[in-house]
Amino acid sequence: MLQTRVNSGLDGVIVADTAMSEVDGEAGRLIVRGHTVEELVATCGFEGVAALLWDGFAQGGGDERAVREGFASARGRAFAEVPKLLQAAKGLTPVEGLRVGLGMLADSELMPHHYLVCGALPVFLAALLRTSEGKSALAPDPTLSTAQDLLRMIRGQRADAVFEQALDAYLATIADHGFNASTFTARVVASTHAGLISSVLAGLCALKGPLHGGAPGPVLDMFDEIGSLERASAWFDDAFSKGTTLMGFGHRIYKVRDPRADVLKNTVATLPQTAGRLAFAVEVEKSAIAALRRYKPGRRLDTNVEYYTALLLEALEIPRSAFTALFAVGRSAGWCAHIFEQEKGGRIIRPQSNYVGPRPITWGGSPRR
Q: What number does CATH give the domain 216-315?
Protein backbone atom coordinates (compact mmCIF):
# COMPACT_ATOMS: atom_id res chain seq x y z
CA MET A 1 0.00 0.00 0.00
CA LEU A 2 1.36 3.41 -0.99
CA GLN A 3 2.10 5.98 1.67
CA THR A 4 0.08 9.14 1.10
CA ARG A 5 1.65 11.52 3.60
CA VAL A 6 3.00 14.42 1.54
CA ASN A 7 6.03 16.57 2.38
CA SER A 8 6.03 18.96 -0.56
CA GLY A 9 9.44 20.48 0.17
CA LEU A 10 11.07 17.21 1.29
CA ASP A 11 12.04 18.91 4.57
CA GLY A 12 13.69 16.38 6.83
CA VAL A 13 13.34 13.57 4.28
CA ILE A 14 16.56 11.55 4.01
CA VAL A 15 17.06 10.45 0.40
CA ALA A 16 20.69 9.29 0.39
CA ASP A 17 23.88 8.78 2.33
CA THR A 18 26.65 11.19 1.40
CA ALA A 19 30.31 11.62 2.26
CA MET A 20 30.43 15.15 0.88
CA SER A 21 29.03 17.59 3.42
CA GLU A 22 26.78 17.96 6.44
CA VAL A 23 24.68 21.03 7.14
CA ASP A 24 23.75 21.21 10.82
CA GLY A 25 21.02 23.81 10.93
CA GLU A 26 20.52 23.72 14.69
CA ALA A 27 24.20 24.23 15.55
CA GLY A 28 24.98 26.53 12.62
CA ARG A 29 27.76 24.28 11.37
CA LEU A 30 28.93 23.17 7.93
CA ILE A 31 31.28 20.20 7.58
CA VAL A 32 32.85 19.33 4.20
CA ARG A 33 34.64 15.97 3.97
CA GLY A 34 35.48 16.08 7.69
CA HIS A 35 36.48 19.76 7.87
CA THR A 36 34.54 22.74 9.17
CA VAL A 37 34.01 25.46 6.59
CA GLU A 38 36.13 27.82 8.72
CA GLU A 39 39.04 25.37 8.71
CA LEU A 40 38.59 24.63 5.04
CA VAL A 41 38.80 28.24 3.92
CA ALA A 42 41.78 28.90 6.20
CA THR A 43 43.80 26.00 4.82
CA CYS A 44 42.56 25.29 1.27
CA GLY A 45 42.02 27.29 -1.87
CA PHE A 46 39.32 26.44 -4.40
CA GLU A 47 41.48 23.80 -6.09
CA GLY A 48 42.24 22.26 -2.70
CA VAL A 49 38.57 22.01 -1.85
CA ALA A 50 37.83 20.41 -5.22
CA ALA A 51 40.60 17.87 -4.64
CA LEU A 52 39.16 17.11 -1.20
CA LEU A 53 35.62 16.68 -2.53
CA TRP A 54 36.75 14.39 -5.32
CA ASP A 55 39.07 12.28 -3.17
CA GLY A 56 38.28 8.62 -3.80
CA PHE A 57 35.82 9.40 -6.58
CA ALA A 58 37.59 10.92 -9.58
CA GLN A 59 40.86 11.74 -11.29
CA GLY A 60 42.75 14.37 -9.30
CA GLY A 61 40.91 13.55 -6.11
CA GLY A 62 43.17 14.18 -3.14
CA ASP A 63 45.83 15.93 -5.26
CA GLU A 64 45.51 19.72 -5.30
CA ARG A 65 48.35 20.11 -7.79
CA ALA A 66 46.70 17.72 -10.25
CA VAL A 67 43.42 19.60 -9.93
CA ARG A 68 45.10 22.94 -10.53
CA GLU A 69 46.80 21.57 -13.65
CA GLY A 70 43.57 19.96 -14.82
CA PHE A 71 41.64 23.20 -14.41
CA ALA A 72 44.33 25.16 -16.26
CA SER A 73 44.27 22.74 -19.19
CA ALA A 74 40.47 22.83 -19.25
CA ARG A 75 40.40 26.63 -19.36
CA GLY A 76 42.58 26.51 -22.45
CA ARG A 77 40.27 23.95 -24.07
CA ALA A 78 37.19 25.98 -23.20
CA PHE A 79 38.59 29.17 -24.69
CA ALA A 80 38.41 27.54 -28.13
CA GLU A 81 34.62 27.55 -27.73
CA VAL A 82 34.37 31.24 -26.83
CA PRO A 83 33.74 32.59 -30.39
CA LYS A 84 30.78 30.23 -30.81
CA LEU A 85 29.54 31.03 -27.32
CA LEU A 86 29.60 34.78 -27.85
CA GLN A 87 27.71 34.43 -31.10
CA ALA A 88 25.05 32.22 -29.54
CA ALA A 89 24.71 34.17 -26.28
CA LYS A 90 24.07 37.66 -27.64
CA GLY A 91 21.55 39.49 -25.50
CA LEU A 92 21.53 36.88 -22.75
CA THR A 93 22.31 37.38 -19.06
CA PRO A 94 25.57 35.90 -17.73
CA VAL A 95 23.89 32.84 -16.20
CA GLU A 96 21.90 32.27 -19.40
CA GLY A 97 25.18 32.54 -21.30
CA LEU A 98 26.73 29.87 -19.07
CA ARG A 99 23.73 27.66 -19.80
CA VAL A 100 24.44 28.03 -23.52
CA GLY A 101 28.16 27.41 -23.01
CA LEU A 102 27.70 24.19 -21.04
CA GLY A 103 25.20 23.02 -23.63
CA MET A 104 27.89 23.34 -26.29
CA LEU A 105 30.22 20.87 -24.55
CA ALA A 106 29.98 17.42 -26.08
CA ASP A 107 29.79 14.16 -24.17
CA SER A 108 32.41 12.86 -26.59
CA GLU A 109 35.05 15.23 -25.19
CA LEU A 110 38.12 13.23 -24.22
CA MET A 111 39.18 15.57 -21.41
CA PRO A 112 37.81 14.42 -18.03
CA HIS A 113 34.47 16.12 -17.83
CA HIS A 114 34.82 17.35 -14.24
CA TYR A 115 37.89 19.31 -15.28
CA LEU A 116 36.19 20.48 -18.45
CA VAL A 117 33.10 22.01 -16.82
CA CYS A 118 34.99 23.51 -13.87
CA GLY A 119 37.51 25.05 -16.27
CA ALA A 120 34.92 26.21 -18.79
CA LEU A 121 32.69 28.15 -16.42
CA PRO A 122 35.22 30.85 -15.42
CA VAL A 123 36.39 31.24 -19.03
CA PHE A 124 32.85 31.57 -20.34
CA LEU A 125 31.84 33.99 -17.58
CA ALA A 126 34.82 36.27 -18.10
CA ALA A 127 34.29 36.29 -21.87
CA LEU A 128 30.62 37.17 -21.48
CA LEU A 129 31.38 40.02 -19.09
CA ARG A 130 34.20 41.42 -21.23
CA THR A 131 32.03 41.33 -24.33
CA SER A 132 29.16 43.07 -22.55
CA GLU A 133 31.56 45.98 -21.97
CA GLY A 134 32.64 46.06 -25.62
CA LYS A 135 36.00 44.44 -24.90
CA SER A 136 37.67 41.37 -26.36
CA ALA A 137 37.77 38.12 -24.43
CA LEU A 138 41.16 37.28 -22.95
CA ALA A 139 42.80 33.88 -23.26
CA PRO A 140 43.39 32.07 -19.96
CA ASP A 141 46.78 31.86 -18.29
CA PRO A 142 47.63 28.25 -17.33
CA THR A 143 50.13 29.37 -14.68
CA LEU A 144 47.38 30.89 -12.50
CA SER A 145 44.78 29.48 -10.17
CA THR A 146 41.08 29.65 -11.00
CA ALA A 147 40.51 32.75 -8.84
CA GLN A 148 43.62 34.54 -10.11
CA ASP A 149 42.86 33.83 -13.75
CA LEU A 150 39.16 34.63 -13.51
CA LEU A 151 39.81 38.11 -12.09
CA ARG A 152 42.53 38.68 -14.68
CA MET A 153 40.28 37.63 -17.56
CA ILE A 154 37.52 39.95 -16.30
CA ARG A 155 39.71 42.97 -15.51
CA GLY A 156 42.28 42.66 -18.25
CA GLN A 157 45.20 42.49 -15.83
CA ARG A 158 46.18 40.76 -12.58
CA ALA A 159 44.37 41.99 -9.51
CA ASP A 160 46.11 42.72 -6.22
CA ALA A 161 46.80 39.54 -4.28
CA VAL A 162 44.31 40.44 -1.55
CA PHE A 163 41.47 40.49 -4.11
CA GLU A 164 42.60 37.19 -5.65
CA GLN A 165 42.70 35.63 -2.19
CA ALA A 166 39.24 36.97 -1.40
CA LEU A 167 37.74 35.42 -4.53
CA ASP A 168 39.54 32.16 -3.80
CA ALA A 169 38.05 32.15 -0.30
CA TYR A 170 34.59 32.78 -1.71
CA LEU A 171 34.82 29.93 -4.24
CA ALA A 172 36.07 27.59 -1.49
CA THR A 173 33.29 28.65 0.90
CA ILE A 174 30.45 27.92 -1.52
CA ALA A 175 31.83 24.77 -3.18
CA ASP A 176 29.42 22.42 -1.44
CA HIS A 177 26.44 22.70 0.87
CA GLY A 178 24.49 19.49 1.30
CA PHE A 179 21.45 18.52 -0.75
CA ASN A 180 20.40 22.01 -1.84
CA ALA A 181 18.07 22.37 -4.83
CA SER A 182 20.76 22.55 -7.53
CA THR A 183 22.84 19.73 -6.07
CA PHE A 184 19.82 17.48 -5.71
CA THR A 185 18.80 18.33 -9.28
CA ALA A 186 22.26 17.38 -10.51
CA ARG A 187 22.03 14.08 -8.62
CA VAL A 188 18.61 13.27 -10.07
CA VAL A 189 19.92 13.75 -13.59
CA ALA A 190 23.12 11.85 -12.76
CA SER A 191 21.03 8.92 -11.52
CA THR A 192 19.73 8.45 -15.07
CA HIS A 193 23.34 8.11 -16.33
CA ALA A 194 22.87 11.18 -18.52
CA GLY A 195 26.51 12.10 -17.89
CA LEU A 196 28.36 14.75 -15.93
CA ILE A 197 27.96 17.64 -18.38
CA SER A 198 24.18 17.24 -18.56
CA SER A 199 23.98 16.83 -14.79
CA VAL A 200 25.99 20.01 -14.13
CA LEU A 201 23.86 21.88 -16.67
CA ALA A 202 20.76 20.75 -14.80
CA GLY A 203 22.27 22.01 -11.55
CA LEU A 204 22.97 25.38 -13.16
CA CYS A 205 19.36 25.63 -14.35
CA ALA A 206 18.13 25.03 -10.80
CA LEU A 207 20.57 27.61 -9.43
CA LYS A 208 19.23 30.18 -11.89
CA GLY A 209 15.95 30.34 -9.98
CA PRO A 210 15.75 33.42 -7.72
CA LEU A 211 14.68 31.34 -4.73
CA HIS A 212 18.02 29.52 -4.84
CA GLY A 213 20.81 31.60 -6.37
CA GLY A 214 19.52 35.13 -6.71
CA ALA A 215 19.84 36.81 -3.30
CA PRO A 216 23.18 38.73 -3.20
CA GLY A 217 22.16 41.33 -5.79
CA PRO A 218 18.96 42.28 -3.94
CA VAL A 219 21.00 42.65 -0.72
CA LEU A 220 22.92 45.47 -2.39
CA ASP A 221 19.65 46.90 -3.69
CA MET A 222 18.46 46.96 -0.07
CA PHE A 223 21.61 48.80 1.03
CA ASP A 224 21.08 51.34 -1.74
CA GLU A 225 17.46 51.94 -0.74
CA ILE A 226 18.28 52.32 2.96
CA GLY A 227 21.03 54.80 2.11
CA SER A 228 21.98 55.82 5.65
CA LEU A 229 21.87 54.20 9.07
CA GLU A 230 19.34 56.76 10.28
CA ARG A 231 16.83 55.34 7.79
CA ALA A 232 17.41 51.66 8.56
CA SER A 233 14.81 51.09 11.29
CA ALA A 234 12.05 52.93 9.40
CA TRP A 235 12.98 51.11 6.17
CA PHE A 236 12.55 47.73 7.84
CA ASP A 237 9.27 48.78 9.44
CA ASP A 238 7.98 49.79 6.02
CA ALA A 239 9.29 46.59 4.41
CA PHE A 240 7.50 44.36 6.91
CA SER A 241 4.28 46.37 6.65
CA LYS A 242 4.34 45.67 2.90
CA GLY A 243 5.21 41.99 3.34
CA THR A 244 8.61 42.41 1.71
CA THR A 245 10.97 39.44 2.02
CA LEU A 246 14.34 40.43 3.46
CA MET A 247 17.14 39.18 1.26
CA GLY A 248 20.24 37.95 3.10
CA PHE A 249 18.29 36.66 6.09
CA GLY A 250 16.75 33.29 6.86
CA HIS A 251 17.64 29.87 5.50
CA ARG A 252 15.71 26.69 4.84
CA ILE A 253 18.10 24.65 6.98
CA TYR A 254 19.90 27.01 9.37
CA LYS A 255 17.91 27.97 12.45
CA VAL A 256 20.82 30.09 13.66
CA ARG A 257 23.46 32.17 11.88
CA ASP A 258 24.85 30.66 8.68
CA PRO A 259 28.54 29.89 9.42
CA ARG A 260 29.53 30.95 5.93
CA ALA A 261 28.33 34.48 6.68
CA ASP A 262 31.11 35.05 9.20
CA VAL A 263 33.73 33.45 6.95
CA LEU A 264 32.87 35.91 4.20
CA LYS A 265 32.47 38.83 6.61
CA ASN A 266 36.04 38.22 7.78
CA THR A 267 37.17 38.04 4.16
CA VAL A 268 35.54 41.37 3.33
CA ALA A 269 37.37 42.91 6.29
CA THR A 270 40.72 42.09 4.63
CA LEU A 271 39.95 44.16 1.54
CA PRO A 272 41.08 47.77 1.18
CA GLN A 273 38.54 50.59 1.17
CA THR A 274 35.67 48.44 2.46
CA ALA A 275 35.73 49.53 6.11
CA GLY A 276 32.95 52.08 5.71
CA ARG A 277 30.71 49.80 3.67
CA LEU A 278 31.33 46.91 6.07
CA ALA A 279 30.52 49.05 9.12
CA PHE A 280 27.31 50.17 7.42
CA ALA A 281 26.37 46.56 6.63
CA VAL A 282 27.04 45.45 10.21
CA GLU A 283 24.73 48.12 11.61
CA VAL A 284 22.04 47.40 9.01
CA GLU A 285 22.29 43.74 9.95
CA LYS A 286 21.61 44.63 13.59
CA SER A 287 18.55 46.65 12.58
CA ALA A 288 17.30 43.83 10.40
CA ILE A 289 17.67 41.22 13.14
CA ALA A 290 15.86 43.50 15.59
CA ALA A 291 13.03 43.98 13.10
CA LEU A 292 12.80 40.24 12.50
CA ARG A 293 12.46 39.70 16.23
CA ARG A 294 9.65 42.28 16.39
CA TYR A 295 7.66 41.24 13.35
CA LYS A 296 8.32 37.48 13.31
CA PRO A 297 8.80 36.61 17.00
CA GLY A 298 8.02 32.92 16.54
CA ARG A 299 10.48 32.32 13.68
CA ARG A 300 14.21 31.69 13.96
CA LEU A 301 15.70 33.88 11.25
CA ASP A 302 19.29 35.04 11.07
CA THR A 303 21.94 36.18 8.61
CA ASN A 304 22.72 33.85 5.71
CA VAL A 305 25.62 33.50 3.29
CA GLU A 306 24.17 35.91 0.74
CA TYR A 307 24.43 38.95 3.03
CA TYR A 308 28.21 39.23 3.13
CA THR A 309 28.57 37.60 -0.28
CA ALA A 310 26.99 40.77 -1.64
CA LEU A 311 29.63 42.97 0.01
CA LEU A 312 32.47 40.72 -1.11
CA LEU A 313 31.44 40.60 -4.75
CA GLU A 314 30.79 44.33 -4.78
CA ALA A 315 34.32 44.91 -3.46
CA LEU A 316 35.66 42.67 -6.23
CA GLU A 317 33.79 44.85 -8.76
CA ILE A 318 31.73 41.94 -10.07
CA PRO A 319 28.54 43.19 -11.79
CA ARG A 320 25.38 42.33 -9.89
CA SER A 321 24.02 40.62 -12.98
CA ALA A 322 26.87 38.09 -12.74
CA PHE A 323 26.51 37.12 -9.07
CA THR A 324 24.59 33.89 -9.72
CA ALA A 325 26.90 32.91 -12.56
CA LEU A 326 29.94 33.42 -10.34
CA PHE A 327 28.33 31.30 -7.64
CA ALA A 328 28.09 28.50 -10.23
CA VAL A 329 31.86 28.66 -10.77
CA GLY A 330 32.42 27.72 -7.12
CA ARG A 331 29.52 25.30 -6.73
CA SER A 332 30.54 23.35 -9.85
CA ALA A 333 33.15 21.44 -7.81
CA GLY A 334 30.46 20.29 -5.39
CA TRP A 335 28.05 19.39 -8.18
CA CYS A 336 30.71 17.18 -9.76
CA ALA A 337 31.44 15.49 -6.42
CA HIS A 338 27.78 14.65 -5.85
CA ILE A 339 27.41 13.42 -9.43
CA PHE A 340 30.31 11.00 -8.89
CA GLU A 341 28.78 9.80 -5.64
CA GLN A 342 25.35 9.36 -7.22
CA GLU A 343 26.72 7.46 -10.21
CA LYS A 344 28.62 5.17 -7.86
CA GLY A 345 25.36 4.31 -6.09
CA GLY A 346 23.83 3.35 -9.40
CA ARG A 347 20.12 3.61 -8.54
CA ILE A 348 17.81 5.95 -10.45
CA ILE A 349 16.00 8.47 -8.27
CA ARG A 350 12.29 7.89 -8.70
CA PRO A 351 10.02 9.09 -5.86
CA GLN A 352 6.30 8.45 -5.69
CA SER A 353 3.50 11.01 -5.79
CA ASN A 354 0.07 11.05 -4.21
CA TYR A 355 -2.57 11.27 -6.94
CA VAL A 356 -5.39 13.66 -6.03
CA GLY A 357 -7.03 14.01 -9.45
CA PRO A 358 -10.33 12.56 -10.65
CA ARG A 359 -10.88 8.81 -10.94
CA PRO A 360 -12.44 7.07 -13.94
CA ILE A 361 -16.13 6.28 -13.67
CA THR A 362 -15.40 2.60 -14.01
CA TRP A 363 -12.52 0.81 -12.35
CA GLY A 364 -11.39 -2.58 -13.58
CA GLY A 365 -14.47 -3.02 -15.75
CA SER A 366 -16.91 -2.55 -12.87
CA PRO A 367 -18.79 0.54 -11.75
CA ARG A 368 -16.84 2.46 -9.15
CA ARG A 369 -18.31 2.15 -5.67
A: 1.10.230.10
